[in-house]
Write a structure and sequence with these properties.
The longest helix has 20 residues, at about 235-255. Helix 3 (about 90-105) links the parallel strand 5 and strand 6. Helix content is about 30%, strand content about 25%. The chain is α/β, with parallel strands linked by helices. The two termini are about 15 Å apart. The chain has one domain (about 5-255): 3-Layer(aba) Sandwich (Rossmann fold).
Length: about 260
């Protein structure tokens, strides 16, 4: 029987009852990998003292850098931290940034989602803005809230497609998706300010926010999106195509290795 490819899915620091330190991964990420990419999802800790990146990449066939509540720490791109932009997850930063470079160097497929896009950009020398909506002319990219400030209770409203993204004609995303314009959900505050040296912009929202990137000259799949593609790839044709393309890259790497 042919072996299923294994995909490492990064964990996030989380505290239960404000006492117990844990690592957490949203189940939708795991289901997207299993049900659409056709791989076995394997969570690994976003903690450098217990996650050996080299050993991890000897075991997995690909990596997903998921979204997360925490922002990438500003010191990673020579900016000053601010308490209003917390929480941060400096341990995940360390693992994810090293992992981004290592996956690209070794040709291991890597797919970044939301925070994962931001991490891949920083790993290759780019910078981030802590609150995209504060830039003149930008829309509010954060999740919808009620008038009292609480997060909207309906996930269908939270993850509804909210804006368009124009894709580079003939680029990797346009080729995978078969079109040059798509609609996506939007649940982020932080976003790309300056792209890294090897970061190729392939998708831009109508307000100029960078929404899709690839890493130039990567020998394997190295794509990232700012929206939450993991929410509905079982039903959404855009997100399905991305996770299927990631799955095809996993299978191709296994064939040639």
């Amino acid at each position: 029987m042919r072996r299923k490819p294994v995909v490492g899915v990064i964990g996030n620091a989380y505290r239960i009852e404000n006492r117990f330190t844990t690592q957490m991964v949203g189940e939708r990420n795991l289901r997207a990998v299993a049900e659409v990419s056709g791989a076995l999802p394997l969570m690994f800790a976003g903690a450098p003292e217990i996650t050996d990146v080299g050993a991890l990449l000897d075991v997995v066939d690909g990596v997903v850098l998921t979204g997360a509540r925490a922002n990438v720490h500003p010191t990673r791109f020579n900016a000053k931290p601010d308490v209003k932009h917390e929480p941060y997850d400096i341990h995940r930063d360390e693992v994810a940034l090293r992992l981004s470079e290592a996956c690209v160097a070794r040709g291991i497929p890597i797919f970044g989602i939301c925070r994962g896009l931001q991490e891949m950009n920083v790993a290759f020398g780019g910078s981030l803005h802590p609150e995209i909506r504060e830039i003149p002319g930008r829309m509010n990219h954060r999740m919808p809230r009620l008038e009292n400030g609480e997060i909207h209770p309906d996930p269908r409203v939270i993850f509804a497609d909210r804006h368009e993204v124009s894709l580079t004609p003939g680029g990797a995303f346009a080729t995978i998706l078969g079109c040059d314009k798509i609609r996506v959900n939007s649940l982020h505050g932080q976003g790309i300010l300056e792209p890294g040296k090897r970061v190729v912009i392939e998708g831009i929202a109508e307000d100029g926010t960078i929404e899709a990137i690839r890493i130039a000259d990567a020998p394997g799949f190295a794509l990232a999106v700012q929206w939450h593609a993991e929410y509905d790839p079982q039903r959404n044709p855009i997100n399905r195509a991305l996770f299927e393309a990631f799955g095809e890259a996993l299978a191709e790497r296994e064939r040639v290795s």
